[in-house]
Write a structure and sequence with these properties.
The structure is a single chain. With 289 residues, the protein is mainly α. The chain has a single domain, classed as MetI-like (MetI-like fold, Orthogonal Bundle), CATH 1.10.3720. Helices cover 67% and strands 0% of the residues. It is elongated, with a radius of gyration of 23 Å.
């Protein structure tokens, strides 16, 4: 497995990008020190004035300043922590809910399976982004509200994916033998069924980490996510919305307001997508040589 991983340049690129973001997130207090006035609010992007027009990059502010003079470099660096937090929490909770629901539905079967799957279908019938916007508006603005809304409508695919895998495995001889030996249902699911069915869910979850960050950034761009001034890549792009077209005769004059946070989002999503492909190669027994 390790040889196959090392021979795959795309997967190695994904791990390299992920390692880069992990280092940025861990060393954020060193790379972008928090000003003394914000010591108790490290995720608050420092401001250096109230001027509306963005300020180009300089030695003191290498990525420049947004409208309102928020430091782009500080927001991008500390935004890496926000991205990991949002992605891991939303995908982790959604995956946990999906595994429990999908495993119970497939293993019990019968009428219970039908009822649970119809509930899943009801949730899937709502357009995800619209549902997330509605729930966020009902709960109120804030990054925690966005995460709650995303978890509510993100777990269903994991449930259906795991259910399909378990339906194929639960009648295998090793499962029937465990039942005949008197092993409890919970132990059968945990020790025998999940290890043989969980890898599609893990692969999907690894790829969804990037999608979650993009969705959260989109909600922040719409003003429903992180509060103003919070270190979040989506909000950093929101600060640049009035400057995307530049100035008359100078279309790229304010390029720095969108390029840096936008590039961070693109590379973060690319890293998780490449790692998802690598995880498939490692965990799928059908393609292991």
């Amino acid at each position: 497995m390790m040889k196959k991983l090392l021979r795959n340049p795309l997967s190695m690129l994904g791990f390299a990008l992920l390692a880069f973001f992990i280092i940025i997130a861990l060393l954020a207090p060193i790379i972008a020190p928090t000003p003394e006035r914000h010591k108790h609010e490290p995720y608050r992007i420092p401001r250096y004035g109230w001027q509306i027009t963005p300020t180009p990059p300089s030695e003191e502010h290498p990525f420049g300043l947004t409208q309102g003079q928020h430091d782009i470099f500080y927001g991008v660096v500390w935004g890496a922590r926000t991205a990991f937090f949002v992605g891991l929490v939303v995908v982790g909770l959604s995956c946990a809910i999906g595994i429990v629901v999908g495993a119970a539905s497939a293993y019990i079967g019968g009428r219970t399976d039908e009822i649970i799957m119809r509930i899943v279908d009801v949730f899937l019938s709502f357009p995800f982004l619209i549902a997330a916007v509605v729930i966020t508006c009902v709960l109120g603005k804030g990054l925690d509200k966005v995460m709650i809304a995303m978890v509510c409508f993100w777990w269903m695919n994991y449930a259906r994916l795991l259910r399909g895998s378990i339906l194929q495995v639960k009648e295998e001889e090793f499962v029937l033998a465990a039942r005949a030996a008197g092993v409890s249902h919970v132990k059968i699911i945990i020790r025998h069924i999940l290890p043989n069915t969980i890898f599609p869910v893990l692969i999907s979850a690894s790829m969804d980490l990037g999608s979650v960050v993009v969705t959260a950034a989109g909600l922040s761009f719409l003003g429903l996510g992180a509060p103003e001034g919070y270190a979040d890549w989506g909000q950093m792009i929101s600060f640049s919305r009035n400057w995307l077209l530049g100035a008359p005769g100078e279309p790229l004059k304010y390029w720095y307001t969108v390029i840096y946070p936008g590039l961070a989002i693109v590379l973060f999503v690319l890293a998780w997508n490449l790692i998802g492909d690598a995880a498939r190669d490692i965990l799928d027994p059908k393609i292991q040589a």
